[in-house]
Amino acid sequence: MADIQIAKKGEASQTFPEGITAGEAVKALCSNKERKQTLAVRVGEDLLDLSASLMADAEFELITADSSEGLDILRHSSSHIMAQAILEIFGADGIKVAIGPSTADGFYYDFDRQEPFSPEDFEAIEKKVKEIAAAALPFEREVMPRSKAIEYFTERGEVYKVELLNEIEDDTVSLYRQGDFVDLCRGPHLPHSGWVRAFKMIRLAGAYWRGDEKNPMLQRMYGTAFFDPKALKKYLHQLEEAKKRDHRKLGKELELFTINDQVGPGLILWQPKGALARKLIEDYWKEEHYRNSYELLYTPHIAKRDLWATSGHLDFYAEDMFSSMDVDDVSYQLKPMNCPFHIGIYKTKKRSYREFPIRWCELGTVYRYERTGALQGLMRVRGFTQDDAHIFCLPEQLEDEIFNIIDLNLHVLKTFGFTEYNIYLSTRPDKFVGSEENWAKATEALKRALEKKGLDYEVDPGEGVFYGPKIDIKIKDVLGRSWQCSTIQVDFNLPERFQMSYTGEDGKDHQPIMIHRALMGSLERFFGILIEHYAGAFPLWMAPVQAKILNITDAQLDYTESAFKELRQAGVRIEKDTRNEKLNYKIREAQLAKIPYMLIIGDKEVEEQTVTVRLRDGKNLPPMSVSDFAEMIHAESQGSISPQ
RNA sequence: GCUCACGUAGCUCAGGAGGUAGAGCACUUCCUUGGUAAGGAAGAGGUCACCGGUUCAAAUCCGGUCGUGAGCUCCA
């Protein structure tokens, strides 16, 4: 057997016999302390577990429990352990196993079983997993010819594994065994099951085999695992926090919006409080656009179906559109997008290059058919309002326009409290319209704009829409969840389809560059995200009710009434609660309604012509006059929506 | 659309092994006029999502429809 040279990265190598396991090499080359934290090693691009044999010279890095790769390995192994537990509890006879990968938050494993699992089974599964963890069963890797593995799984009736094996191109495959559970798996895995110290079943749901709805529906069991029980506790706490912030729950409690069976699923009814918040958002949006040299448009909700044939929507998106309706024997269609209307306005006259860039924006309500199963609160609806805009410009203006859009975009997001985001640049897909040259130029312009703004971004190769490259911005909310709202897309398709043109400097006709962009995406969805981001406690500038006056007894009714009128006059969004209830009761209600300020009026305040101000967090400000309060509110609201 | 679960008063939920329903909050009225998160009493409110079937009898069992949730799929 030949000798090989192995080294810990950055350190001197030692000679070992070929076939030595990674674990033995780590033991020889690393300190005890390091070894104890090591789950696997990275050699080049590959992650190997400690039981893997090293067959050539290698330099390795340690993958320890405190790394994200380590957590991934833990969860992947936990899915195997969960599968083992489930087979032990329910018997392997009636169950076929499918796949069990790790995910961003944990892992899942898919099972094919006649009888449904139920959440009541979770406790027993968790208990069994604990037993398996306590037994510290080693994960044993076995490499065998593919044909032998096929034979092995065929014998056991594991048809899904056989299907996977038949598609693997390598001659040899690896199997992992812990206890009696054997699974086809690339690995790497934990050294032994004892590493699983914090395990929790999360939920179960149906999932098609390989995500294809023609395939059988399997039962997907979701779980999560952590090295540290405290981290699990924190994660579960976060799930609860997300539940508390659920915009559907808060939307109901705060009377922001409702969805009504009789009206139809996926259609939002904005209640007064929600409608007012929306108005504030829209007002801000419009002012910001006006300041940035956009012009506002309004367009109708329906149009002749032919328009959508010209635009290409019927070819590409017919399935996502509502069915047509006949009006005087002509077919009409609810709009799924605003762009053809804006193009209609563009075409009202002959355009000159001197007019460019043309920047048109609209809060345009569109209707898209979403499958019933996809609908969710405000996040996924059938009728929604896009904060849409279309920019028509010259090729040489593209980069500047993109730059300005990004600038405005990030400013608007910041005003709403989103300062963390990931940016993605999607490039030309396999199927595309327009010339390769134009694609390259446009993509380059997007890139340069991002770089000029000093922004980090990731390239999503081939992920562009067929009509042009795009930039997507995903914001992070206060719980660290990502939401894609903003998108900036270059379009080579519509100008062509609608034969748009302008007269250039040379007196000839040219085709304009068209940019679509949305900052919030859908107002409905964005509002849902805001509700969850702020847990319903909106910042002052967009709070539908900024303050509520609470009188202590009927004796202060007159003063309460005059303070109320004065504040309304002063433009403060004020309400009053003059019911015959105790102060405690009124405070509780205002607090639950997440109103930023409570103004308390008792005999003392009447006498001194002041109000006592209570904040949402329970603290009090010193008594102040009504006009001082109005001024304070205005100053504070203005501060948070400073213009760009 | 698919799988599973769920649908009882405005809201949050209990109950119901088949004999036409209950709590708390909210609402109305009365008492109480009380300084920083629920004062008291009374009253009103539901053909138990809808449609069909089984049954002497269905809110309860069965089937379908609609809606909601979790996920799959989809997301121009």
From TrEMBL:
- InterPro entries, alphabetized: aa-tRNA-synt_IIb, aa-tRNA-synth_II, aa-tRNA-synth_II/BPL/LPL, Anticodon-bd, Anticodon-bd_dom_sf, TGS, Thr-tRNA-ligase_IIa, Thr/Ala-tRNA-synth_IIc_edit
**What GO terms are given for molecular function?**
ATP binding; metal ion binding; threonine-tRNA ligase activity; tRNA binding
A single Gene Ontology CC term: cytoplasm
Question: Where does this polypeptide localize?
Answer: Cytoplasm
Q: What is its main location?
A: cytoplasm
| Assembly with partners or alone | Homodimer.
Its name, as the record gives it, is Threonine--tRNA ligase
Q: Which organism is it from?
A: Candidatus Desulfobia pelagia
Q: Give the lineage.
A: Bacteria, Pseudomonadati, Thermodesulfobacteriota, Desulfobulbia, Desulfobulbales
